[in-house]
Amino acid sequence: MIAVGKYSEAESLLVPMVQKDPDDPELHFLLGKVYLYTDHPAAEAEHQFDLAAVNAKWKPKIARAYSDAFDVVLRGDDDTKAGEYMVQATRADESLKDDACRRLAPAVEQRHTDGKTYRNLLRAEGAIGGACAAVAVKQIRSLISGSDKILDIAMLTDV
After folding, report:
1. Are 52 and 62 in contact (CB under 8 A)?
2. pLDDT band at residue 93 using 50, 70 and 90 as cut-offs
3. Across residues 107-111, what is the average pLDDT?
C-alpha cells in the first residue's frame, strides 16, 4: 500500500501490528515512512525511525525514506520541512552530508531570488548545518559581487 501511496490504509493496518509486535524494527520503519507522507508531526516519523534504527541495518533505508520525502516535499514548496528531512537523512547516513546541500541549495534557489534561499540555508541545523552555512555564505558573496543593488546583509543573515 505504501508503494502506491495509500498511506491512510497502510497506517490503519500498521498501527495495530506495531502495538502487537513493538520490537519489530521493520514495522516501525514502515510506520515512520507512512508518517512522512501524512499529516502527522515530523517528530512521530522520527520516533518510529529511531525505534527501527536500533537495528543498524535499517539506517540506510531510513536515510532513503527521508531523502525521498525531501524530494516530494520540496515540490510542494515547503523548504523548511524539506530541509528538516534532509537533516534527518544525513543523521541516518552520514555519507549523505556532502550531497545534502548540493541538493537543497539549487532546489530552494529556483524559487527564491530575494535572499530567502540563503536564510533557509543558514538556518539548516544538524548534520548539514555547517555545510549549508558555507554554501549560503559563498552564494551571498556571489550575489553581492554580481549585483548593482544594495543588499540588506543584516536581513540576509538574520538567523
Report:
1. yes
2. confident
3. 57
